[in-house]
Amino acid sequence: MRSTSNPAFRNLPTQQQGGYATFDRSGGGMMGGGAAMAGSHSSYVDPNQATQDTGRPITVDDIVQKTAISGGLALVAGFLTAMSGLYILALPAFVVGLVVSLIVIFKQKPSAPLTLTYSIAMGVALGGITGPINQLYPGIAFQALIGTAGVFFGMLVVYKTGAVRVTPRFTKWLMGAMIGVVVLMLANLVASFFTAGGFGLRDGGPLAILFSVVVIGVAAFSLLLDFDAADNAVKAGVPAKYSWYIAFGLMTTLVWLYIEILRLLSYLRQD
Prior knowledge:
It comes from Pseudonocardia spirodelae. This protein is globular. By secondary structure, the chain is mostly helical. The protein has one domain. Helix 4 crosses helix 6, helix 7 crosses helix 9 and helix 9 runs antiparallel to helix 10. It is built from ten helices and two strands; from the N terminus they run H-E-E-H-H-H-H-H-H-H-H-H. The protein has a two-stranded antiparallel ribbon.
């Protein structure tokens, strides 16, 4: 499986670990786990025996359903938080979401309760920051949701059509861009402690708008890596329970994307 910028997907088991048999796309028939992934061995693995040991293989429907449930809970939690005016819950919810995400990543095991807890916590957090902004700029919350959904499905089409191929070179380029963005964010944060506005990357000016567009672009293209990791998981036949892990990975990217789109829209709505 290719490397990905999303740390959650790095812990997905390979065919070699799961031991599932899959169809070789080149027409070689049923191959053992390592043969289909990296050609490490060519022994046949009985899928019936494999499913008895670790459960049935994951399917696209599993990923879609778990991601839809996670996203739906986040939307409901965010809506209720924004409508109730409990914006004070944003910070503790972000802390809970961060702690849960670290547990999921380092635990290296899929967990429906943790994935759903993360989704609800981040939904509350996003609702807490979106509510006041939406009061200041009416309709911006809906615009940010539509924008996030549009980018998600747009990048899914890009991935499925092969308009942009996820190659090792593309992955390295995108991960480099992501590191650069994070470094600039941290540098701007540190600079803001000493000078008003820091480097101007988050003050709403022209440079801030340009930076937000770049960040949104990086987040959007990182979805391609997420889709590729999920696609490879299905081809590798990892256990179906890992659909919760994939849903968690996708949610982390969507949360990041939503925040950046909301930020950009707020810049554009400033007088």
